[in-house]
Design brief:
Belongs to the spermidine/spermine synthase family. It is a single chain. This protein has 18 helices and 11 strands. The protein has 2 domains: about 220 residues, Growth Hormone, Chain: A; about 230 residues, Vaccinia Virus protein VP39 (Rossmann fold). It is α/β, with parallel strands linked by helices and about 500 residues long. Helix 3 runs parallel beside helix 5. A 7-stranded mixed beta sheet has the order 7-6-5-8-9-11-10, with helices on both faces. Strands 1-2-3-4 form a 4-stranded antiparallel beta sheet, with helices on one face.
Length: about 500
């Protein structure tokens, strides 16, 4: 405590750059979340935000250094902080108007870069000006220290602030507060910080100033919203730990239905008046019946609205179901809004599906992977040879692995889907592939991968299969993809070392 007391008596600048450094990282992390509903949580969005912020900081360092040599005034330094805070709030308002109007008209490749330049460059540029400016002021305040020592002190506290901002955003702010609250709060924090040191007034006037700004903050917080596109008939809309979660009512095939949207992806749904599965691809989980009808243990990778676990409970009364879902709130939301029963046979685990597979000592009779909620959000670590090998190792004898994948059956390279098929076949010798819409179409559609951990080859055109009472199973022969028509040697094998999912996805769009 003595060290900190002595330090801040000498200078307030380290404290100031600690706060501004934290704000830079908070804004950077929030920027990725703000863009996600429109462009997906992809490598293009992450790379664009990081590149724009770094470019803005670099230019800010250069301009700030020049400006501090020409006008080495504290009033200018704190004025820049005030303007940076105001610009964060103003550009947040611009984003609230711009993204819902133009976000979907921009591609998922160029869109994040354009939006990042418009919404996050200017405030990052201003914040970048502060470090060289603070170094100049520090050397003027303490003439006994050299430029090197002053630089070390400023960059130490600024970087420490960035670390604190990064950790607080990920572990505290985003899990507890909305993006709106955090972004406007950061803007007002910077404005208060600058104004407190900018004016030579008594402490009571400074407290009054902070109170007035705080009141204005709550007013803006209630009037500005950048929470993704507006959805009519929404019954729930909140930021999740990973994505924006919206639940809304609408129609599907003429029937009333309730939909779950995560960022820009309508990822799950349930009918309002029946327990029938809504999306056609989800019905393919039942294909396990022609391979291993007597399942005891099942794993679902990706819960969503928990419609497949709910259906499986009806199908297999003795089954125990583990569900790996990384979004902590979805299980409770599924029970509240999608009539998922509070059944002890469902064991929900808030964990990444691959990590759960690795850690679990269980062998599963059925693994159903439905983490591919959209072509915009394909988790690369669930596409690789290592993942499929891990899944196979966790199957019981005659166990079945079923995965929903989204892609195009175009024969022209590059193709994420055909790379995945090649990779899957390397692991599962006994594998089957079905196109939910048509095995002859080249449009984007759901493709069902089935890997059987058994030696018996299943003829889906046999009378046993075609005579099944389940229409999905009975129609498998009409949906089966003839893999022999593709030259898989043209497509790369996907591994943990090489899985350019976003690049291949962009080429398919």
């Amino acid at each position: 405590m003595y060290f900190f007391s002595l330090f801040f008596k000498k200078s307030t600048l380290p404290f100031v750059v600690f706060i501004t450094g934290a704000c830079v990282l908070i804004v950077e992390i929030l920027a990725i979340r703000i863009l996600a509903p429109y462009f997906g949580n992809t490598i293009f969005a992450v790379s664009s935000v990081i590149s724009v912020v770094l470019a803005a900081l670099s230019l800010g360092y250069y301009v700030g250094g020049k400006l501090s040599d020409t006008y080495p005034r504290e009033t200018l330094f704190y004025g820049i902080i005030v303007v940076s805070g105001a610009s964060i709030i103003f550009l947040h308002l611009v984003g609230a108007l711009f993204l819902p109007t133009f976000g979907y008209s921009l591609s998922m490749v160029e869109g994040p870069m354009v939006s990042s330049l418009l919404l996050f460059f200017f405030q990052s540029f201003l914040l970048g000006m502060l470090s060289p400016f603070a170094i100049k002021l520090q050397t003027m305040r303490q003439e006994s220290i050299g430029v090197g020592s002053a630089s070390g002190v400023i960059f130490f506290w600024s970087t420490l602030g960035s670390i604190a901002g990064s950790l607080s955003a990920g572990f505290f702010l985003i899990p507890r507060l909305g993006i709106n609250t955090i972004m406007i709060g950061v803007g007002f924090l910077l404005m208060c910080l600058g104004l407190i040191f900018l004016f030579k007034i008594s402490i009571w006037y400074k407290i009054l100033l902070v109170l007035l700004l705080t009141s204005f903050f709550f007013y803006l917080h209630r009037t500005i919203s950048l929470s993704g596109p507006t959805i009519q008939n929404a019954v729930y809309s909140q930021d999740g730990l990973y994505q924006r979660i919206v639940i809304y009512d609408g129609l599907y095939s003429g029937q009333g239905a309730r939909f779950l949207m995560q960022d820009r992806n309508p990822s799950a749904a349930g009918f309002l008046t029946s327990d029938d599965l809504v999306f056609e691809y989800t019905k393919y989980y039942a294909a396990y019946k022609i391979f291993n009808p007597n399942i005891q243990n099942a794993l679902m990778i990706g819960g969503g609205a928990y419609s497949v676990p709910k259906a499986l409970l009806e199908d297999a009364p003795n089954v125990q179901i583990d569900v790996a879902e990384i979004e902590p709130s979805l299980f409770d939301l599924a029970r509240q809004y999608f009539s998922v029963p509070d059944d002890t046979r469902i064991h929900n685990v808030v964990e990444d599906g691959r990590r759960l597979l690795h850690d679990s000592p269980k062998k599963y009779d059925l693994i159903f992977s439905d983490a591919f909620s959209s072509v915009y959000s394909t988790p690369s670590h669930l596409t690789t040879r290592e993942f499929f090998s891990l899944a196979k190792s966790k199957l019981s004898a005659n166990g079945v692995f079923v995965a929903n994948v989204i892609g195009s059956l175009s024969k022209t390279p590059p193709s994420l889907l055909l790379s995945e098929i090649k990779t899957f076949k390397r692991v599962f010798d006994n594998s089957y592939f079905f196109a939910v819409r048509s095995p002859h179409g080249t449009d984007l559609q759901n493709i069902i991968f089935i890997g059987y951990n058994g030696t018996e080859k299943i003829d889906v055109a046999s009378s046993r299969v075609r005579g099944n009472s389940n229409p999905i199973i009975a129609g498998l022969s009409q949906k089966e993809i003839n893999i022999g028509q593709f030259d898989l040697s043209l497509f790369p094998l996907l591994t943990d070392d090489f899985s350019p999912v976003e690049y291949l996805t962009a080429k398919e769009l």
